[in-house]
Structures are given as structure tokens and as C-alpha cells.
Design a protein that fits this description.
This protein is of the alpha/beta class. It has 9 helices and 5 strands. It has a 5-stranded parallel sheet, sandwiched between helices. Strand 3, helix 4 and strand 4 form a beta-alpha-beta unit. Helix 6 packs parallel to helix 8 and helix 8 crosses helix 9. The relative contact order is 0.16. The N terminus is likely disordered.
């Protein structure tokens, strides 16, 4: 069968509340985010591994609370007063600005403005906030004083739902036997799920055929070989 050229176009992720699957692995974090009206000191730090659903959950919160979402690295180019005027703000990938004086100062000012106005601030990142290498001591102390919600390692339910969602984002219909096969054998991480789904999408497009268990086995074998 002739192969088609496969362009790795980005899939549009579904970020609505109806697309966020709740399982024992993330139920506590979801509950913490949904309780935003009662966050101690009006702030919450949401942590979890890369691709764990932090951005998705931040969008769920923003839709419910009428919040703005901004990347931490973009803060120096924005007006903290304008952001704080929204009353509720989610700042993503806070550890990524560690050591960037302008970005750290911007987040510090935004934090203080929201606190003074009784607003709400959601911060996201990977790893324990106590270990985020923020250089500005006043910012570090305020981040470390926030309550923390953790997206835990995936269970079977969550991994299954994640794969279904990732395939759906790419408009791929994949049968339950293939999903079950992947769940039993793949690396249990969100990043791995994203890589495997992208690889299967490219393969299916190039060969103009549906995703099968045999195709999934080949992709997994290749992934395991590259990991060694």
C-alpha cells in the first residue's frame, strides 16, 4: 500500500469540563480546584507531571470562575493591574520563570494585587513548590504558603479516559480492544500517552487505514526500543 505524506499538524485539544475525566487519581485535586471560593488566602498551587491535565483543569476553573489564564513567562509583557482587575487569574508553568527577575517581580506584584482585592490566584507547575528555584525570596515565601493540589499518577480508569480523549482530539475512532492493549503495556505517563497517540495518528494517516492492535504493538515496540 502506498504511503501518504503525513503532516504532524497539532490536534485541537478539548478542554471543557465534560472532557475532564475524574478518577481516584485526580479526584482530590479536582475537588480542591472546584472549591476556589474557599481557597485559604485566595490561592492554590496545582502540581503534577508534564501533561497531567494541569492546563485542562485550569481551563475548567477559568470557565467556571470567569478567570484569565496566562503563561508565567508572558507576565513581564502584561500589566499586573489589568490582570488583577479580572479578579481571578491562573498562571501556568511558574517554575519556568525561576531566575527571570522581570517575570518573578511581575508575578509577585500580581499576587499582591489579587490578595489586596480579595481575588483568586491559581498557579501551576511540576514538582513540589517548596523546591521551585524562585530567586525572589518574597515570591517564594508566598508561593510556598499556598495550599497545594496534586494530580497523582494515573490509574487504569484515567489512562483509558486519557487515551480516548487524545484519540478523539485527533478525530480518530479507536476500538476498546486497542485501548485496553495500550493500557496494559504502555508507560503510565501522560507524556507517553501523547507521544503514542501522535505516532499512531501519523501511521494511520500515512497508511490510510484504521488504528489496529498490530499497529499499536509496533508503535509500542519502537517506543520501548528508543527508551533503552
Amino acid at each position: 500500500m502506498a504511503r501518504q505524506l503525513a503532516f504532524d499538524l497539532p490536534a485541537k485539544p478539548a478542554l471543557g469540563r465534560e472532557d475532564f475525566f475524574v478518577s481516584p487519581a485526580n479526584a482530590l485535586a479536582v475537588r480542591a480546584v472546584e472549591g476556589w471560593r474557599d481557597w485559604p488566602q485566595g490561592k492554590l498551587v496545582l502540581i503534577g507531571p508534564e501533561g497531567a491535565g494541569k492546563t485542562h483543569l485550569a481551563h475548567v476553573w477559568a470557565a467556571e470562575a470567569g478567570a484569565r489564564i496566562v503563561a508565567a513567562a508572558a507576565l513581564p509583557a502584561l500589566d499586573p493591574a489589568d490582570l488583577s482587575g479580572a479578579g481571578r487569574v491562573a498562571v501556568e508553568d511558574v517554575p519556568g520563570i525561576a531566575g527571570d527577575p522581570a517575570a518573578e517581580r511581575a508575578l509577585f506584584h500580581l499576587h499582591n494585587m489579587l490578595a489586596a482585592a480579595g481575588g483568586r490566584l491559581l498557579l501551576t507547575g511540576t514538582g513540589n513548590p517548596v523546591r521551585w528555584p524562585l530567586a525572589l525570596p518574597d515570591l517564594a515565601s508566598r508561593v510556598q504558603a499556598a495550599s497545594v493540589a496534586t494530580l497523582e499518577a494515573m490509574d487504569d480508569q484515567l489512562l483509558t479516559a486519557l487515551l480516548v480523549k487524545l484519540f478523539a482530539d485527533r478525530q480518530l475512532i479507536v476500538g476498546p480492544p486497542v485501548i485496553a492493549y495500550l493500557v496494559r503495556r504502555m508507560e503510565r505517563s501522560f507524556a507517553a500517552a501523547q507521544r503514542i497517540v501522535a505516532a499512531l495518528d501519523r501511521r494511520a494517516l500515512a497508511e490510510q487505514r484504521r488504528v489496529t492492535r498490530a499497529m499499536a504493538a509496533e508503535i509500542l515496540d519502537k517506543a520501548h526500543g528508543e527508551a533503552r
